[in-house]
Amino acid sequence: MPDESRLATADRPLVFAPKPSRAPPSSAIGPIAWMRANLFSSVSNALLTLLGAYIVIVVFAAIINWALVDAVWEASNRRECLDKVGRAGACWPGVIAWIPNLLYGLYPKDQVWRINAAFLMLVVWALPLWLPGVRSKLAIGLSAVLLYPFPASYFFHGGEQDLLWTALIALGLAAFAWVWLTTFSERFTGLSFGAFVARVTGDAEQPEESARLRARIGYAVLYLAALALAAQWSLSEVPTRYWGGLFLTLVISGIGITFSLPAGVMLALGRRSHMPFISLCSTAFIELFRSVPLITILFMFNTMLPLFLPVGVEVNRLVRAIVAVCLFAAAYMAEIVRGGLQAILRGQYEAAAAVGLGFWQSTALVIMPQALRIMIPTIVGNFIGLFKDTTLVSIIGLFDLLSMARAVGEDTTWLGLFLEPFFFITLIYFVFCFLMSQYSLNLERRLGAGQRR
Amino acid sequence: MSAPPAIRLVGLNKWFGTFHVLKDIELSVAEGEKIVVCGPSGSGKSTMIRCVNQLERHQEGEVVIHGRRFGESAAQDEAIRRDIGMVFQQFNLFPHMTVLENCTFALTWVKHLPKAEAEAIAMSHLERVRIPEQARKYPLQLSGGQQQRVAIARALCMRPRIMLFDEPTSALDPEMINEVLEVMVELAESGMTMVVVTHEMGFARKVADRIVFMDQGEIVEEAPPGTFFARPRYDRTRLFLSQIL
Ligand SMILES: Nc1ncnc2c1ncn2[C@@H]1O[C@H](COP(=O)(O)OP(=O)(O)O)[C@@H](O)[C@H]1O
Ligand SMILES: [Mg+2]
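Above: inputs. Below: predicted complex with magnesium ion.
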């Protein structure tokens, strides 16, 4: 029934007054309401919740009892542990005694600082990427990926340097110094390092040409200083057969991860290329490496590669493993990137072409950023998989974290101690993988801000 | 007339596979002229307009822009293309860049202008399409009409001499169509050479110098709006007009 008072007359139209919004009823918000809606919405749901909670509590209690409450913390061999608590509690002294080996393998004890220094260098190198007010972030990131490996490998391996090697190490050191110099000058003066040098050494009135020249002289001085430093730098050689533990795992997976992304991007572009030869080669490579298990590839590279190389050329076992891991990871990454590319609408290419961009520009600036962003969860998932897959290098005789853990129980003092070291490295793997996946979620949230469809 | 026409399509033929999509297209657009292209869906309007800036390659015939023929050298093709702006039905803004970055992007990477200068140009065009206040937002935070106006601003930033529009209002909710058409009318009044594929016959009547009617890959007839609406020569045109008016 229409309300009489709201009927329109010919000269007076109805005035529409929207109803004011009200807050939702209190039964719909808050933790109690959430639990009622999600955990106890029906009898069967409530039973499942209780059963689940029971199982979680029992399992956790058992683990905590074993790992902490009943555990032995001081003993000089496994016998003592067994005499104290039998198998009811963990025997941690064995793991503690082996921690240096679990982390660094057989790396000489008095040289371990080099590994720590190199990892610290990486952290310090990348730190400006997270500082506000730094503009050269792309250059800093690229320098870390491309130039950090030189000083890092000298830290790790040491030994004689030839001329080229010294020059490359110096390049790395100069880049490292540049990263922090430019970070400071950008934060405090707003000028990049080069512009800062030009400003300090001459007045602003002078023409651009001379400013550029003075900036270049600044870079040259920086490089010469780094060269002097690199030539002085001398570390004893630690052959790769002494490398091991977490350190080795990080070296292999770190290189694999950094290599796989750019290589995967190129392979994916190659596979989609209109040039038949390039497309065929990329496809063949991808399919070949994807259809063979990593363990087989490692094995092939380890035993077959030397047969194909000319006599006298010897490739180090670690290098062989790293090459195998890189190629395998690149093939997988290529398919992930291709998946991302397929999600980009054709209109994006056309819009880029219509404003005058060429193929490489539109790929690098329009298509790839979007494709990679969509694929972040899958890409990071692949990184995590790769990190764990590096355990397979143990079958070609490299002592990664997993094989070092196995070695604890083969040590005569701690004979049979397997569970505890495995528990310990499980925690290590968990922490690394968890951090990676959290970082990926964080990245997704930040990059996705305001851009969701 | 001394200056060559802005656009000249000569004997244009195109096939998708074996499907003959454009048949002997002949069209000449003078500098500053506004052409509206209409016709039933699938008649080849998009394909024709996309041949004008060579987003689609044709197999026979010539596309000549301001007297320069496409296909003579890669460098010249790029230069010709920079004179032509395009606005798409689906906007095709870059979703990972802000509105401002969408506009400055090509100025920075194609014309290599410094950032400040590029931003000044971009803001002036965003003002022209009346959305300077949205410059820092991402495209997907805007309404369809706003997105399409950004797309127009983005194309204008490159200072094109010719603007192509492929059904710019077809993906819009009805209440947003006018805000886009108004911007296009102003652009037309400023003297831009425009080729517009649209079924907005009000716009055609107001702005077009000539209306081109296409069916099955052919230009059936072309005439000034007055003649076109009042005395279409072909039965096909009459049928089409009776369906959309
Ligand atoms: N990339 C393509 N490949 C094959 N056929 C196409 C392609 N693009 C368009 N077509 C076909 O060409 C014809 C004309 O398309 P189009 O130019 O988009 O028509 P309109 O814009 O007039 O609706 C249609 O029949 C369409 O199916
Ligand atoms: Mg169309």
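The pocket of adenosine-5'-diphosphate (ligand 1) is lined by residues B 16, 21, 39, 41-47 (CB under 6 Å).
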